[in-house]
Design a protein that fits this description.
The chain is mainly alpha-helical and about 240 residues long. The protein is built from eight helices and six strands; from the N terminus they run βββαββαααααααβ. The strands form three sheets. The protein has a two-stranded antiparallel sheet with strand order 1-2. A two-stranded antiparallel sheet has the order 3-6.
């Protein structure tokens, strides 16, 4: 039943749009607060660049989920709506930073956890923040544009192709910008952040991209499943918040 207010009938809100926006924002916020930790996984074999250990930022998995959400959103609601989601998400990064740092700078009660430890965990370094913000803005907008262009080129067919191509290439761009800016350019040429050996920086980039590429390949069935479920739920008379 459609509700109304003093301005007239309230617009219907697609339930899928709400759910995918929530997934996108949840993954984005999680990536923001977990980016500072570097993960290390032992491999059963030694690779040419990474060796027997795969190193990647802690935000890699959460951030990969944002591409799953944005691809589904683009498929269902179009390029323009997806770009609004991506760019509003970019602005929300600054809100997250403001809320985190306002809490860090506020005085701590005697019963609080150690403020220094709290700052170490949540207060991401400037090089990490700058790298992630620039990488996000470029790669997410690129992903939406490429996904939409491939949809037009294939007349809406081959969803698997546009998911893999758009996500695989945008994740490569994201990785190069984030790792290059956060761990190479800013530490060496601006003096922000610790300088890491070139081998470590390359290993971080390769490790991060390998995980993201695997996720892009593995999440293709999920894209089909999610878009099918949303389309079914949003058939006339179902799945709409009013």
């Amino acid at each position: 039943m459609t509700t109304s207010n003093r301005y007239g009938a309230a617009p219907a809100i697609p339930a899928g749009a709400v759910a995918l926006s929530a997934l996108f924002v949840a993954a984005l916020v999680t990536a923001q607060v977990t980016a500072a930790k570097v993960l290390a996984f032992e491999l059963p074999v030694s690779l040419p660049v990474t060796g027997a250990e795969l190193a990647l930022p802690g935000a890699a998995l959460a951030y990969a989920l944002t591409f799953l959400a944005s691809d589904c959103y683009t498929e269902l609601y179009g390029r323009r709506a997806a770009q609004v989601l991506v760019n509003v998400g970019f602005l929300m990064n600054f809100l997250v930073l403001a809320l985190v740092w306002s809490t860090i700078l506020a005085p701590a009660a005697p019963s609080s956890i150690d403020p220094a430890a709290f700052r170490t965990v949540l207060g991401a370094a400037t090089n990490i923040v700058a790298g992630s913000l620039v990488a996000y803005l470029v790669s997410q907008n690129y992903d939406v544009v490429v996904f939409s262009a491939l949809a037009d080129y294939t007349d809406g067919r081959h969803l698997w192709l546009r998911n893999i191509v758009s996500t695989g290439t945008s994740q490569a761009i994201d990785t190069v910008i984030f790792v290059g800016l956060a761990f190479w350019v800013l530490p060496r040429y601006v003096g922000i952040g610790p300088e890491l050996p070139a081998s470590v920086v390359v290993s971080l980039a390769v490790g991060q991209y390998l995980l993201k590429l695997l996720i892009a390949l593995a999440d293709t069935p999920l894209v089909y499943l999610i878009t099918a479920l949303v389309r079914r739920s949003e058939e006339p008379g179902t799945g709409v918040l009013q």
